Input
Amino acid sequence: MTTYASTEVALLAVALTLVVGVYLVAVADRLVAVIVAGDGVPIVTTLVAPVRQVAWLLSQSRTTTERPDAAGWAVAPALLAGLAAFALALVPLAPGLVLADPDTGFVAFSAAIAFVMIAVFLHGWSPNSPLPLIGAYRYGAQALSFQIPFLLAMLATALPAESLSIVRIVEAQEPLWNVIRQPLGLPIYLVVGLGVSFWGPLNLPDGSDLAGGTSLEDSGIARLLWAVARSSMLIAVSAMGAAGFLGGWYGPFLPGPVWVIVKTLILLGVILLAGHVFARVRIQTFVLVSWAILIPLALLNIFVSGAFLL
Amino acid sequence: MIALGPLAVAFAVFVAAIAAVLILWWGANPGRGRAPAVSERTPWTGGREPQVHAWNRYHARYYPMALVFLAFDMEMVFMYPWAVVFRSEGLIAMVEMGMFITILLLGVLYAWRERALEWV
Amino acid sequence: MGLKSRIAGFAAAGPVPVFVVAGAGMRAMVQDVQLDPHVRIVDTPRAAALLLIAGSTNHADVQALARLHDILPHPRATVTWRTHDPFVALGGAGAATAVEEDDPVPTLRAVFRDILTGGRASEPAILPDVDAVEWRGIGPYGQGGSGMTGGTPYGRPMAELGPDRDGLRLDILPVSLGPFFPRLPSGLVLTAKLSGDVMTEVAVTTPGVLPSRPGSASPFIRALSGPVAIAELELARACDHLRWLSDALMAQGLPALGRRALRLAHEVRPGDGDRVRAFGARLSRSGLYRWSLPRAGLVEAGRFSGLGLGPIARAAGVAEDVRLEDEGYRALGFEIVVMRRGDPVGWWQVRIEEAARSLDLAARAAGRKTTLVGRVESPRGRLEPGDSPTNRALALVPELLSGLEWGDALTTLIGLDLDLDEAASVMDSGELRATA
Output
């Protein structure tokens, strides 16, 4: 049962979700930072500060470097935001309430995740500056390493559904959520979620040891758009995690779409907390752990849950 | 507007987001009127003048790992349809994919031993 | 226009993005500015609106300072804080606001509001608008013409080939982390040739002559010439370690915990050793020692013996500490902290444990004073007039950093805890050179 949404509704829904979501991410991130740092929590300031920061970035001029790749520099945040919007359009809110439910929704989502590497690399390559370039290549290693664990962890959710459609994957969780019957799946997915939006411990392309990395030469609207694109990716990944592992719209008392939003917010909270509590991973350690530990764990996840299904 | 198929709708969202960002990128620049001076365009590494352009034949030291990634990516191509028919095919599907995975995992083990997953 | 000015006015009340240059003797005060919620210290000048120059910078770095100023995007302004600088001579800071009080934040906010609302014009560029090398060609991308035959597109050459690990014909990128890199001491320049993101041929240069500074109030400097209360000395040591920890945590991607460490540095009193240990336990739970700091032994213990490098040497198993020779400490039952690992994990753990033990010692000190004159154990190592541990650590930097990947190299550099102010205080003529 595929649902077709009219294009205007789709555009509006995704735009609204992203605007509200990005603001929420900014506020929540600030809140978590302030709590972990032990400062007092000023409620009003925390709510208003992200908007003031947006206003500041809109007032700052967008600089350039002496020989950048101007087109690439513009395309990078555009591509990242586009991929996030695309991925978000694939997340279902209810059996009859999804913007796009192709029969190969999972493959489409994976494709979107794969292209993030292009966007981040472009962002670091374009300014023609040494530190952003190092960040871009570092992300290349990071992205190649987390792709396979991500695909394997999500593939396990397709096994009970016998389908690659996201709606079917959610419907197959009606008896039991995937987080319970495939316990290794969600932790691996969260690690990858951190990696795709290069957040917190996996902030290797934009790390503080590179003084801002790929974002070093950004200012004004460029900095704002990159931050918005990153947060959008985070939201899309959290939403898909809620659909694939936490049972989507299933839950007592509340209507389905509200459950999807609640579960997305839970995953978002976990990711934001991890961002401020865990130290940045060394790239060599991440590559090694990804290949030598995460892939075998993800494969174990697939085969054990597959054995239980037979 | 016409109702499009599911992938086309998602693609329309994709294109719209890209367009929105590009419009903002080129439109929302308060400093548009004044072209930056030479000293304002220098790439920054701490204050010193850079000696060369940054673009170079960069040694991406993880290239052996990228080859192993290619192998696993091809495996993923096979695992997509396998996941769909797994339940109906039964034990034989699991055994066959298990053999395939084992061979690839041996490849990862070999790469690990040959220090292809490390840097320096 | 109405909308633009309204947006700018709304932004003016938010946190001020500032890029700081911590000149001589102002490192601690600059660090404390981070605790103010009205100011946001940024890592890159491109994200900043204001350039805060605290204290005096080296005369040789004036060009770099001017370049740093010009890289800030418009609208920008400079604020100087207790600085007596040749920056003015470049004609750039004629409009710079000077701050002399302890707290620069109100001035920062006022200047930020001014440049956003148009009360003050954005500062023009200081350096001349001239290309580094004459290169202009004929075509739209600068191609063609005699300026291009030397191979300098847009005024700069491309990177050259160099020897590479795998026998590949790839380029070596020379990079200099300039005088004003965040979290590195101001004036320190690290030049490296990068093969990919691995550093080869690392060299570090420091300012030749540091500007004269007001008399230092550091208890460690005072302990060189006369007895100082042990409680005061050990409290200063713990605070110093915690301040270093704050900077190092921010460099490792834990800015919130870094602020917590800074707050701890302000709040600890003698006897708070367990508080520091609890914080250290929290750090180990954040995966810092497992996946963030390099764990392989960088240097074997023998290399560090006799150099008096303080916590770094003690982490590698070298049991040297000037405090062992001091009667006052022996009477208090001072015990040295030694580990058997020569990597940054050990350095961090030794410093945290030493900070905790310093606070315990300070509680027990009860008015005792140091008895040694002419040598003291500073938080970085053995300090004597004319010889500081920073000099010796700087001499080690090339061999420690060569062959390391970028992230590890920066972690190691920050883990060395280089303090050019301390080095300048003990140098007679103000000359600083790395001793072997």
Notes: Confidence is low (pLDDT under 50) at residues 430-436 of chain C. The CA atoms of residues 25 and 188 of chain C lie 15 Å apart.
